[in-house]
Structure formats: structure tokens, C-alpha cells
Amino acid sequence: LKASRRTGPCYAGPAPRARSMQHFLIHVSPAGAVLCITLLAAVAPTPEAVRNFKLSNFGHLRRSAASVDPPLIWQDKKETTQVCGQPNKVNSSSDKWERCPDSCPIYAEVKPSELHCQFECVPLTVEACKARNPKAPIPDKKLGLCRSCMIDGCAKCANDGTDTCLECNRGFARLGSRRCENKALIIWIIAFGILGFITVVVILWIVNLANRPVVNESGLNHGLALRSRAKLTMPVDADQSAPATPGMPQSNVIPTIVMPEPRQRGLWPLDTNLLNTRVAGPGLMLQFNLQFWLIIWATGVAIAWAITASFFPDLFILGTRRAETPRQNCILVAWGYEKQHGLMWVKVVFTLALYVVSFVLCILFSIRQLRIFQLEDAEETTHKDFSAVISGLPQIDGHERIEEELATAVERATSVGVVGVSVCWDYSEQEATFMSLIEHELCDREGIPSLKPDAIPEGSARRGIFHRMFQRVEKTFLSPTTQKVLSKGKKTMRHHRLAKHSINPVHLTPRRDLSRETTGIPSGAASPSPVVEVNVEEMLWKLKTCNQAFVVFNSEEDRDAAIRQVSNEGFSFRDCKLKLDESDCEPNTVIWKNCTNETSFEKGTRVAKGLGVILLALAAWVCVFYLPYAHYAMSFNYAYGQEPGGIESFTFSMLVVAGNAAMYLICSEVADYVGFQNVDSREVCYMLLYNFACVFNVVLDIAVTYLVAYEMMVGQNMRTYHGVHLKNVDTFIDRVETYAMQREMGKSLWRYSWPSTFLLPFLIEPIITIYIPYKLMSWVVRSNSKYRSYHAERFLTSTPMDLSRYADVLLNVILAVLILFFPGGYTLGMFATLAVSHIFIYGYDHWRVLRSIPSCEFANMNVDWWAQWLLSVPCGLLLSGGVYKWAVDTGSKGWGFGLVFVVSAVFVAHVVIHTSLLLWFVPLFGRKEKPPSNMSYKQCGRRIACSWFSANPVYCLRSNYIYHHEPPCDFCVAGKEHLLRVNEDIGLHFDDAPIEAENYDETAVDVRSVLRTLSTRFSQSSAAQTPAAASDGEAKNM
Fold first, then answer.
1. Do 146 and 136 form a contact (C-beta atoms < 8 A)?
2. Which of 62, 161, 456, 968 has its CA 20 to 30 A from that of 531?
């Protein structure tokens, strides 16, 4: 768009609205350009301007650095109104690009310590500059002004008209006359040098790993097959369960079994609608609904702001225009102050209207989420519907047959038949031993020996320095800490234990059943690792029960009848009163190893320690990384429009990304350390802790941003609209209300959000947590013959799913809402990029759930309820922002910190009201209680593999070693459901053939074919073919 310029910095030519929008587009990334142009096409009054705007010019305009205003405009030969030697006071109507006459081509600020924004055109001499302002003696024709020296870290410049520094700031060393070097630079050089060395070593290790010979193809294929079978699959039809497996063992001995032909139970199709399809429990379905709703909300806000700003075009650019000279700063501050206060009523009305609409929508959405969960729970019958939880159980030794005794007690008290009882045991100290034994038994039953006698790493005879270095790198990569970092804190202790065993394998053999022959190691052969024999029965006898157990009934109606029978006083058992309540979790969501006999005080201590660790981590992050960056940022010379370069911006983005990634790991560790007994409670804690940590981190970031912006504005000798030096403004509120600070903090928040927080972490996530671990682990397993059976399985397992996405999207919403506290130039970009980013996040999560994660279940809506509660934070910020802008518009000069108190009180009041509505109002609109299902437990057991018995590892071992069931209860592992054996006497009904594994050598998508098809379609549409011809061409391409 080319339009003639006229005087006045806010005039944008004959098409001001389109020109303002174009100015905005140049400041956003290309990712949001398409959406922004679409919005403009819908609301702008000059559509021909939109049609003439070409995306091919977008990159050029963006690289030109400074909005649509041309650089070095004073070199233009346009006539000027300036007179040499005549001081002029600039205001909001002055032309910031007006040049001086050729005889006096530069501006000099006249007595800046006494006068406000008065400039005079002077000759291009040192004497002329010094006569007007002794602190700016350097005539600069390129910038068109008299300036001071431009040396980073300089405290005192020479007065001879050259870029010479006489004295550097504290923390800087003077090198020559034109340079001040940061004394901490050597630390950064050493740190980056170490980081570079580590990077080179890792790259060399990866190259070495990729070129190692393949010596363990069977182990690789076995691990990849389990990775494929462990993914989320469609459930088995109860009427079409697999036939009984021929040759299935019915004894306690563990021989190699002959597997039936695999069949394709089926992965969920990629076009599965996760908004209304239960693939991993209702909890995951609710998360996708929240993500989808936030995309609609962000898009609606962006469109609403675009429509509003189309009537007030200055809102598109308010706070985004740059200034390179003191004269331009004066003009922009005056223009920005007047425009901001003149349009403040628009901002107040928009913010308060957005608050009302968002608040109402949040409550309506909460009602919808509740009804979705209740409907899904009523329509889907799972193991949860047949179980009740017994609480108040005393500690009982493991040598007693407590399961049978409890079942008899429940039947006697309720007069209802019981399928069985699964007791929670305190086995945290023996968890590694028990799970290792179970893993070995499953691998041996599959006919895959857990270790071969020649399981010695290939090439172990080579002991060169590079070989030892690569071994060290590989050991570090396989360590539990590294694996947890790569999985965003989602690897469980089970994975940690197996990772340790993969480096130093320890084989656990039950004394009763397994001999050296059953493990595939001949008698007399030298074992490559020690074989530890344990007395499993003795270990089980020493266990103590926890205070909970799960009792399973034949039908949901029997369960409800039993609970009603003992609802008042409970029932007696060994001189204790036990309670019977509905279970709100599924068997595979119980974290059995966390069922311990800890007291409430011990658990509270764990929570306090966890919070302390998070606070210490945040403090360490701020002190070690953020404050050094802030120190550098404040030492930079921002005068005359200078800004840090691309390396500094990249460093800031990486600090934000790394800080959020560190919070993933730390909050996950704390949530695991607390020791919750089910996955949903753990996810609630994780989500709240992560959200708290990230919000706290954002508060610290904003505080640092405020300090950097303040030092920057003071360094540029910025003044308020009324001529007061910013350094002389005393109170925090008065500083924040100045247009210069508003502009700079709004820009900093925009840079912090996009793309550092909105997009970059989610672009990196699939590479770091899915692709890189998959490729590296594949290379590790295929090149090491010792990594077989369960080692290969656990190294190649996918990253488990969690519900941390709630915290991610809520943090993004909070950041987007904060932009309403600042000038409106970045508002459209903030909400447009929020919507675009969340579309990508939704698509990535959709693919990840259907094609990557191992089987999981999120059975209740506890996490979603807390996410609904956290939505009170952005809603409260909207109300606080509206009140703050109203107070500024009506005059809050004498309020001081009273304004902070009012804004905070309004925020707290909203959170209280929002919480009260969630607790008492929303439940009124829930569905009526569902009638009992007609499905029997036997039908449910045939359809869903993981039961209350097969999910409990101690129950499986007791079935084998204490009760001597024939066959015993097998432990259910995702991807190995076909190993479960039927024993209807103890409630085991699931029987299935192995799922057909994916072929990882085949490309899932023919990328070239897809691109060729899209190119052909685009060419056909561009050529304006007839509909029939276009249809034929499309059919041919398909």
C-alpha cells in the first residue's frame, strides 16, 4: 500500500484502517498472517486494499525493521517547514519524519534538563551540537540528530564529538576508547564452550550409534511389536471375544506357549472424534472439549477486537510504533498518551463486555462438561461399575487368606454374592523385586528368554578413548533422570528400575518354579550377570495390608444393593467397622505401589517438601539464569532505537522454553513423591503444581520485564506526557501508567508469549519426546545383544499420556488476557496467534493419542473440575483489567497503591463467586442418577482386559504362590493382554489373541503423493477449469 504521507504521526494515508492493519501484520509472524488477513477481509471498509496486499511482500516489509514508515525519511527532498536556529516544541500533531533544511540537516534537543521536547535544526558540527546540549555532542547525519556516544556499558562519554568512553558502568571493563566489555563475559564463553563440547560429543555418539552393526534384530522387533500392541485400541466386543487358545497352559509352571495367529483388533481411526468418543476414559475426552472450546473463544475474541478496531483504526497500532530519536519519542509519547486516553472508554467497554461473556460461557461450559461426563458414565459400563471400595481395614499379615475372609464378611453383611476381593498391600520396598519377577514370567511365557548366555555387548574388547566416551554418553542417556526429562516427567518408577537393570542386569528367579533351564541358560553355563534367587512366598507373608480393598460384585445392581445395606453403620470385621462406598476409579488407574500405611502427618510433610522444592527450583532458575540475562538486558544501550539482536532474542526464547520444560520435570517428580493412590489424583496435583509454578514464573518474568523496561526508558531519557523525567516518577502505579512503560511492557509480553510460550514448546515436544527417543532407543537396542525381552520392551515404549495439557493451555490463556492491561496494538495478534497455536496443539494431541501413547485410562472428571476452577483466573484478570482501565480513565492520580488493592480485591471477589457457582450452582444442572446397567461382570470381563485382579501385582503373585490357583491370575500389561488366562472361578474372563503389530519399516503417509495431489488441485483451481473438468481431474488424482 502506497499512500502519500501527510503531517501527523497517526495519519496513515487515504486508507488508514487497512494501513493500520498492514502495520500490525508486519509485526506478527507469517503463521498468523493468513488468519489476520481473513479477519481484515471481513471487517475492513477498504477490501480493495486487502486484495492488493501481497504476501510476497510480507517478508520484505518485516525485514525492513520498523513498521510501514520508511527509514531515513529526512534524506527525502520533500519541502520542510523547519527553520534553522529556531527551536520548535513538538506535540502529537508533529510529523516525526520531517527533516531539517540542507543548511542545518540535524536536530538538536534544546536544554533537555530545563525544557520539554524542544528541538532545533543546527549545522552538522560538533560546536553546534554542544551549544544546545553538551551531553549530545556528536553530529550524526545518518540518524539526523545530535547524539551522545553509543557504547554498551558506558557510564561517561567524552565531550569531543566522538564515540569515546571515559568510564564504564560497574561490572564492565574498558577496552580501548570505544568498548566496554562485560566482566562476566568469560563465564558465558566458558559455559557456551562446555555446552558446545557436550553437543559435539552427543552428535558423534549419535553418528556412531546409527552406524553400529545390527546384532539384535530379534530384540528390536520384539520391542517395536510391543510398542505397537500397547497403543490405544478399540475395545473387544463381548460377543466376539477370541476363542480359547489351543495349548494354553493350565498349570503353575511357566512353559513356552504357542500363540494363535494374530488378529487386528484395530487402532482407532485417525478421523475419530475425540470430543465425543471415549478412547482413554472420559477424563481425556473432557480435556479435548476444553481445548476445542478455548480455540473457539480465542478466535471469537480476535474477531470481536478486529471489528471493534475497524471503527477505531488507531487501536491496531497503539503501542507498536517505533521511535529511533528523542524527537520521535516525544511525538509518539504525546500521540500515544492522547490516543490511549481518548480511546480508553473503548478498551473499558470491550474488556468488561468480554468479561461478562467469558464468565457466562465458563459457567455454561462447566455445566456442559458435567453433563458430558455423566452421560458417558451412564452409557459406558466398565470395571468401576461393579466394584466398591472398603476402607478402614486393619493391618493384617500376608500369610493369612485375607481376600477370602473379606469376601465372606461382605457376603454375610450384605446378603449379596461377591466375585472376589483385591486388597491393597504395602509393598513399596519390594516393588522392584515383584515387578521384575512378573516381567520375567511374562517374557518366558511368550517364549522370549530374558537373557542369552552370549549377551555381551558387541565390540566390548575395544577400549579406546572414543569407545569409553560413547559408553559414558550412552549410560547417561539410558539413566532414569535423562529418560524422565525426555518424557516430560512421565516415566514411572517401573521404567526407572528397568533402565537401571538394562545397564547392570539383575535376574530374579522364584525358588519354587523357575530353574536355570527355564530362563534359557543351560546348566553349567557361565551367567553373564548374577542370578538372584528369592523366596517369593516368604516375601508375600511379610507384607501388611493397607486400609483399603476393592470388592467386586456380579452386577452393578448387586453393588448398589450392598452399599445401601451397610451405608449407615458399615459392617464388622475383626472388631473393626469397615465402610463400603462406590469406587470412582478404574483398576488400571490405581497406583498400587503407593498404597502404604503412612500417616496423614507423613503425607502432609511430603506435600510441604514438594512445594519447597518447587520454590527453590524457581529461585535457582531466577538467580542462575534470569537475573544474568536481565543484567545484560539492562546494560544494553537502547538509545536511538537500538535493540538487542537475534542471538539475544533467541536466548530469551530458549530461557522461556527451558524454564517451562524444567517445571514439567520438577512438578512431575513432586507429584510422584507425594504418593497419590490413583492416576487422577496425581494428575490433579501435577496440573495444579505446574500451573502454579508457571504462573509464578510468569509473575517473575513480568517483574524482570518491568525493571528492564524502566531502566531502558530511563536510559533513553524518557519523559511523561507532562514533561516529567521518568526517573523522577516516584510510585509504581504512576510509572506503569506512563505511555512509554505501557508500550514497552506490552511489547515484552507479546515477545514472551509469541512464539516462546504459545508455539515453540509444542513444536519441539514431538521431536524431543517421541521421535528422538524412538530413533535412539531403536539404535541402542539393535546394536546391543544384551537388551532383549523386557529391556527392549521398556526402552522402546512410548511416552505415557498425562493431563498436563490443561495447565499448558490455561497458562496461554492467562498470558493472552494480560495483554488487555496494555495498549491495544498487540491484542489482535495475541488472540489470533493463541487460536492458531491451539489449533496446532489440538491436532498434535489428536495424533499423539491415536497413534503414539500407550494404553491408559482417566476415569473421573477431577482434573477437569480443577481446570474449570482455574478458568476463574483469566476471568478475574479480565474484570481486574476492566476496573484498572476504568480507574485510569476516570483519574487515579492520587490512588497510589490503593489502586493495586482495589484491582486485587476485585480479582479475589470474582474467584470466590466463580468457585461458589462451581460448587453449588453447576451441579443443579447435572443429569439424574443413571439406572444400573444390565451387563454382568462376566460380560465386562470379556470385553475389558484390565480387571481389579489382574491390575494388582500382589494379588497376581498371591494367586500363584499363596492360593495356588489353576491357572493363576496373570498381571495385565498393555500390549500383552493375550497372555491373560481365563479362570472363571476367581473372576478372570478375558481371552484374546495377540494384536497384529504395525510394520515400522513402512511409511505411514506417502508424503510425495500427498504433495503432488495438493499441487495438482491448486493448479487446477488456478486455471479456472470447469466444474466437470475439475471434478474429473480430482478423481483422477485421488
1. yes
2. 968
> Do the Cβ atoms of 733 and 895 come closer than 8 Å?
yes
Q: What is the pLDDT of residues 665-676, one digit of tens each?
A: 788 888 888 888
When pLDDT is cut at 50, 70 and 90, the band that residue 1032 belongs to is very low
- 565 close to 833: Cβ distance less than 8 angstroms: no
Is the predicted pLDDT of residue 481 greater than 80, yes or no? no
Q: Is 140 exposed, middle or buried (0-12, 13-18, 19+ CB in 10 A)?
A: middle
Strand segments (E) across 527-568: 531-534, 544-553
What confidence tens digit (pLDDT) does each residue in 871-925 have?
A: 999 999 999 999 988 888 887 555 666 788 889 999 999 999 999 999 999 999 9
For residues 377 and 858, the answer to whether their CB atoms sit within 8 Å is no
Amino acid letter for position 718:
M
The confidence score (pLDDT) of residue 638 equals 61
Top-confidence residue, 329 or 43:
329
Beta-bridged to residue 553, according to DSSP, are 418
**Which tens digit of pLDDT belongs to each residue from 852-869?**
999 888 888 999 999 999
At residue 156, φ and ψ (nearest 5 deg) are: -140, 125
Quick one: which of 815, 881, 750, 702 has its CA closest to 24? 750
Coil/strand/helix, residue 577: strand
* pLDDT computed for residue 679 by the predictor: 86
Cis previous bond, 967, omega within 30: yes
> Within 10 A of 962 (CB to CB), how many other CB atoms are there?
21
Are 419 and 987 a contacting pair, CB within 8 Å? yes
Q: How many CB atoms lie within 10 A of CB 863?
A: 28
Residue 8 has phi, psi (to 5 degrees) of: 110, 120
CA distances 397 to 410, 520, 933, Å, are: 20, 35, 37
Phi, psi of 509 (to 5 degrees): -125, 120
Residue 677, SS3 per DSSP? coil
Which of 107, 95, 154 has the alpha carbon at shortest distance from 133?
Answer: 107
Span 337-359, average pLDDT: 93
Do 491 and 482 contact (CB within 8 A), yes or no? no
DSSP conformational letter for 155:
E
Count helices and strands in the chain by DSSP H and E runs: 35, 16
| CA 185 to chain centroid | 33
CA 682/CA 689 separation, integer angstroms: 11
**3-class SS of residue 24:** helix
Q: Order across the sheet with 145-147: list the strands.
A: 88-89, 118-122, 106-109, 145-147, 138-140
